[in-house]
Amino acid sequence: MRQRPVRPADPKAMALLAAAAALDRKAEDLTLLEVTELTGYADYFLLASGRSTRQTAAIAERIARVLKKAGVKPLGMDGVKEGRWALLDFGDVVIHVFHTPLREFYDLDSLWADAPKVELEPQALADLIPKEKD
Fold first, then answer.
1. Going residue by residue through the chain (134 aa), what tens digit of pLDDT does each one get?
2. Are 27 and 10 in contact (CB under 8 A)?
């Protein structure tokens, strides 16, 4: 029997679960920003990069799948199939998955430089997702 991830108790837990899913597909340059004080529409932005459009799409799909298994559905998703810049909107958590050259071009990291970064510990994140038998 496959285990499901625990339903996130709050936006931060949701963002951390999304980060865990991104790492599960070897996302690079993972950044979690707390934007509560800077926007009226989200509490966290998760930024992640993939080395190719295929990997970028796989990262976005994995995030959506893991959160769905945890009982959280997106309000909207855009750009996943193209794999250049995928946007996943989960309300309090907005996720941007970029193909690396586009992340550098749009530079959201600098645009949101005033937002506090949340420390991400890879081992703690890995423990958030039950291991599946493929």
1. 457 887 888 999 999 999 999 999 999 999 999 999 999 999 999 999 999 999 999 999 999 999 999 999 999 999 999 999 999 999 999 999 999 999 999 999 999 999 999 999 988 998 898 776 54
2. no
Integer Cα distance of 27 and 82 in angstroms: 17
DSSP class of 4: P
Nearest-angstrom CA–CA distance, 36 and 4: 28
Strand pairing category for 76-78 and 44-50: unpaired
Angle at 22 between CA 21 and CA 25, to 5 degrees: 95
pTM value is: 0.92
CATH of 11-119, one of 3.40.190.170, 3.30.460.10, 3.60.150.10, 2.30.42.10: 3.30.460.10
Retrieve residue 79's tokens: 């750009």
